[in-house]
Design brief:
- There is one protein chain.
- The chain is α/β, with parallel strands linked by helices.
- It is built from 13 helices and 15 strands.
- It has a seven-stranded mixed sheet with strand order 1-9-8-5-4-2-3, sandwiched between helices.
- The longest helix is centred in the last third of the chain and has 18 residues.
- The structure holds pyridoxal-5'-phosphate (PLP).
- The site of pyridoxal-5'-phosphate has 15 residues, from helix 4 and helix 5.
């Protein structure tokens, strides 16, 4: 079905930056520069300076950024890592793949880790915390870093959805031992396929991750220093991402503008719970990777919107700790359960037109008017 308001619009996205992207692709192919070449180094430097960190290391996915963070930090069997269930599966699966045990804490009204609950999850085996900056909003990083410092825990930021978001003026990915970004196509900065990035201010971690992504081989000597992985970011993807990085500030501004239109359009609908509203103290600068609302009548509302021509995503209708095969059933996470029943993501991307947003707003008003 073709939607009046699709959830993503890749053709329009690329149409607007066509010449720049094709120019970058041509240059890479003309030179035959495909693996670990200049475009990758250039992109890594540019994004490190955008985020405000010493090192940025291109990887093949956000999942690998999380996995290699834990590996580089030495997380292993017997260790515990605290995170949330209201997230993409990769945040948890990487902990399991390191042989460690995920300890899940509940989320708060902002859908991010409820920082007040973290201390209850800490044991003598806890080594790390992975906060997730869901939907383009950071966790309360001041409180989180204070707890981590107090208990001598490392923080791996899952900033997959938060490129450009800030807390107290500091960007996502610049607080923890590492920051992990995804460049999945629908992300704020999307590649033409899969890609990811790890940020850090720690020289040793940076060195370790550069080796881990390339089979543990020191290229200058040919020596294998340990068993590694193949998780390099393709030079071609890096060249495309470097072109697109320049647009991120303007794209994030547009996302914030669109969120403002949605906020205003729904201000009279008490049945709909909106994303956290901008605060007067301005501690949070949100970039709206997703515009997620909550409704007690979620499933009916989703069906109505899809029928009206609005494409909707529901992340995640069944909380991860309720998937039997994952073995996470021992956690009691009432807020996560409640949120999973209520959330729906509305279309949100810079190419979305104001009249499309108005159409979504009208469709939602129509739904509530038709409800008894
Ligand atoms: C919160 C979160 N963590 C991790 C990931 C994993 O990133 P990738 O799909 O690039 O492996 C994603 C992306 O989907 C995500 O949204």
């Amino acid at each position: 079905m073709s939607y009046k308001v699709p959830f993503v619009n890749y053709p329009e996205h690329y149409r607007r930056i066509w010449d720049e992207v094709i120019g970058a692709i041509k240059e890479v192919l003309t030179r035959g520069d495909l693996i670990l070449r200049d475009q990758l180094k250039q992109f890594e430097q540019n994004i490190a300076s955008y985020i405000g960190v010493k090192h940025a290391i291109g990887l093949n996915s956000g999942t690998d950024a999380l996995f290699l963070s834990l590996k580089a930090a030495g997380i292993k069997s017997g260790d515990e890592v605290i995170t949330v269930a209201h997230t993409f599966i990769a945040t948890i699966s990487v902990i399991v793949h390191c042989g460690a045990t995920p300890v899940l804490v509940d989320v708060g009204e902002d859908m991010n880790m409820d920082v007040e609950q973290v201390e209850r999850g800490i044991s003598s085996r806890t080594k790390a915390i992975i906060p997730v900056d869901l939907n383009g909003r950071l966790c309360h990083m001041e409180k989180l870093m204070t707890i981590a410092d107090k208990h001598d825990l490392i923080v791996i930021e899952d900033a997959a959805q938060a490129l450009g978001a800030t807390f107290d003026g500091k960007k996502a990915g610049s607080f923890g031992l590492t920051g992990c970004f995804s460049f999945y196509p629908a992300k704020i900065l999307g590649s033409a396929g899969d890609a990811g990035l790890l940020t850090t201010n720690d020289d040793k971690i940076a060195e370790k991750v550069r080796l881990l992504r390339d089979h543990g081989q020191e290229r200058s000597t040919g020596e294998y220093l340990f068993y590694g992985f193949n998780s390099r970011l393709d030079n071609l993807q890096a060249a495309i991402l470097d072109v697109k990085l320049k647009h991120v500030p303007e794209w994030n501004e547009r996302r914030r503008q669109l969120a403002g239109l949605y906020d205003e359009g729904f201000s009279d609908l008490s049945e709909l719970k909106l994303p956290p509203q901008p605060e007067s103290n301005g501690r949070f600068f949100d970039v709206y990777q997703n515009y997620v609302v909550r409704s007690k009548k979620r499933d009916k509302l989703v069906a109505h919107l899809r029928k009206s021509g609005v494409e909707i995503l529901v992340s995640w209708p069944k909380p991860l700790h309720r998937h039997k095969a994952l073995g996470l059933g021992n956690f009691h996470l009432p807020k996560t359960e409640q949120i999973s029943k209520e959330v729906l993501s509305l279309p949100m991307y810079p190419e979305l037109r104001n009249e499309q947003v108005e159409f979504v707003i009208e469709s939602i008003h129509d739904f509530y008017k038709s409800m008894p």
